[in-house]
Amino acid sequence: MEKRRSGPARPANAWWGGAIWLAACGLAGAQAYPADGTADPLPDALQGVGQTECLGVQVPLDLALVASDGRPVTLADCFDGKLPVILTLNYSNCPRLCSLQLNGLFAGLENLDYDLGAKYRMITVSIDPEEPPARAEATKQKYLAAYGRRGAEQAWHCLVGREAEIRKLADVVGFAYVCVPDTRPKQYAHAAVTVFCTPEGKVSRYLYGIEFAPKDLRLALLEAGEGKIGTPMEQVLLFCFAYDPQSGSYTLQAFRIMQGGALLTLMILGGVLAAFWRREWKRSHRRAGKGAGP
Residue 51's Cα: distance from chain center in Å? Predict the structure, then answer.
């Protein structure tokens, strides 16, 4: 399991989502950078907010939660062992950031020719233990109406649960959030993080922010799918791109392209040489056959 704490090289990925939320509510502004290049301490409301990348960790499939239709479920019920899964931790009463994240995610998914339910599944777990299933269902139906593709309703699981279960999942995937004091209804400071899981429930990739390029979504799903989705050409495309933690997206890798080009050249050269040797072998056998005549 690879654990990587979001560091100063990309402050936006670690806590900027919470800062946006707080700034929108008038509770705090963005982090200030003095002339000497050092960063001021995070506001008290943001202490403990961030994301630790836990690549390869297994999500707790036995976690008991409640579906938005009121049914008791476990996380295992939301994985089918065939399709990759997009996991988000949000809550319906979030005043801004959760809506921005889900709006951006579905905007990216709408521009993707992968259908929710056919190529991937999705799980959204509310981090608010007071959120009732009916509230989660209303959020689900709002986004499904905008998405408008068949089969999506059965493939997107909006779940609520108790504090202990929510915290267990958040801790496993490295999602650190805090309840903002003296807010009613309760509000939470958190980052905008979208987690991609393999069909078996292991964390494969994290994407940050509130805007998602279809290319990044496609490659993250291909990577999480472990070869179970996507065409052969798309698998080749995944080979040419690699996730860049500094930019938070997939970038074209010149070295990989050179590797692929070299491999293709060797294959072509090998084919030419094989054809040449086969032709020469046939010629030598024909000459040997003529020389053995009466």
Answer: 14
